[in-house]
Structure formats: structure tokens, C-alpha cells
């Protein structure tokens, strides 16, 4: 996989925290940021899928947990 360098500017506090995390997890700064970005993207995808599921459920008349419990009980 090709790698592309990216330049990011941080304030002193953020850079210290990044360095602390890198040391704690025995990673490079890039490694910590890569994991953070992957986690962010995973959460974003989950949120998008949840919104799609919510729209489908509401289209079928499910607006509350009670609506679901009513039909599965």
C-alpha cells in the first residue's frame, strides 16, 4: 500500500498528549494518529448505518422500544 505524508499542526498541549500516548502504547506519533483516525471512521460509519436503520424502522412504524417489544412479545 502506498504511503502519503500529511502535515498536521498541533498546539503544545495536544503534542504532549500525543507523545504521552505514543510512549504509553509503544507507538510512533503516526501510529497513534492512524489508530485514532481508524476509530473515528469506524464510529462515523456506525452512526451512518444507525441512521439508515432508524429511517427504515420508522418507515415500518417503529418509533420507540415499546413498539418493538409490542411486536416481538
Automatic annotation (TrEMBL):
InterPro entries: Arc_rbn_hlx_hlx, CopG, Ribbon_hlx_hlx. It holds the Pfam family RHH_1. It comes from the Bacteria. GO terms for biological process: regulation of DNA-templated transcription. SUPFAM superfamilies: Ribbon-helix-helix. Residues 6-43 form the Ribbon-helix-helix protein CopG domain. This is Ribbon-helix-helix protein CopG domain-containing protein. It comes from Candidatus Danuiimicrobium aquiferis.
